[in-house]
Amino acid sequence: MVQTLPVPFYILCGSLGAGKTTLLMRLLEFWNSQGHKVGVLMNEAGEVSIDGPRAGTIADRVLNLAGGCICCDTKDDLAWSITQLVQDYQSTLIVLECSGMADPAEVVDAVTDAYVSRIAKLERIFALLHPVPLPDSGMAELVTRNAIRYADDLILNKRDLYIPGHWEQFRDTITRHNPYGRLWETNHARLDIPALLVAPVTRSLPTNVVFGKPVTPGVTHESHAPHHPMVTTVRLTKPLDRARFVEWTHSLSEGLERAKGFFRFAQEPELQEFQFFPPRTSTIAPVMLLDEPDHVVVLIGRDYDQELCRKSLLACLAS
Predict the structure, then answer these.
(1) Lowest mean pLDDT among 71-85, 244-258, 274-288
(2) If one looks up domain 229-314 in CATH, what number appears?
(3) pTM
């Protein structure tokens, strides 16, 4: 298969011991049958990869991200590894298997970087879960709940190990946290892989995360607030007016959780880097880079009006 940029990027996340590597092997077998050169990123806890060699028997190339979590340092490693798979190994598709300690929010942030998004496009997020009590505090609680909230597809595995009443309670808990993901119930991660990879019917939103429950006729989008990350990339064809842009940063929707980008202001020579992050703090600062990035602003959040944000940002372009 010929490589076409940006290549699709899939995230496989979820509970420790839920069967992620088993599902990964099934995905790899299918993608190989389609002629893909699949690059796999393994993010395991510990210094030595246990699942990597197993995936390496099928994948075209496997790279390991140490440490189990995705944090500031590992995000740089992730960006570098994606670049290596695309440029050096000519991967036509990339899949990242996160450890049960990795926060999908950090992965989404890394993949939507101005550089990385040139070569890889976030396609889908799969969360593999099994019926163990959800953590109620600490990093494990954050990671597990973000895996559920961010998922396009919620795959409930190991159904055969649990009695009916407990299984229904587990399923109801998951769907309360994310009522918009497609729900799959299975044993041994046995799924109809072609059906899993087919994009569901969705709203026609300018997001590169395909998701969701079909819109009910006659019901507005606002009453169906999505729980997955809506990612909007706004390309800037001209420098921005500084005053208008600063005013725009003060009017961002509550549903917008993260924004970032590179651009120039009119009549100012320096390249600017923009960052917006919790708790609703923004910075704009000159930056010197060896390679000129695309002039874009990337918006990440839930339940925000993507088109309004896009139009209001483009209204900040200098006359």
Answers:
(1) 71-85
(2) 3.30.1220.10
(3) 0.71
| Domain spans of the chain, in order of start | 7-197, 229-314
Q: How far is residue 295's CA from residue 238's CA, in Å, rounded to a whole number?
A: 9
**In whole angstroms, what is the distance from residue 129 CA to residue 143 CA?**
12
What integer pLDDT is reported at residue 17 of this predicted model? 76
Three-class secondary structure of residue 150 per DSSP? helix
The CATH number for 7-197, chosen from 3.30.428.10, 3.40.50.720, 3.20.20.140, 3.40.50.300, is 3.40.50.300
CB 276 within 8 A of CB 259: yes
Q: What is the distance between the alpha carbons of residues 252 and 274, in angstroms, rounded to a whole number?
A: 14
* 54-81 pLDDT, tens digit each: 465 666 788 887 654 565 556 778 888 9
Q: How far apart are CA 278 and CA 281, in angstroms?
A: 6
For 74, 144, 254, 264, the CA distances from 66, given in Å and listed in that order, are 8, 19, 34, 36
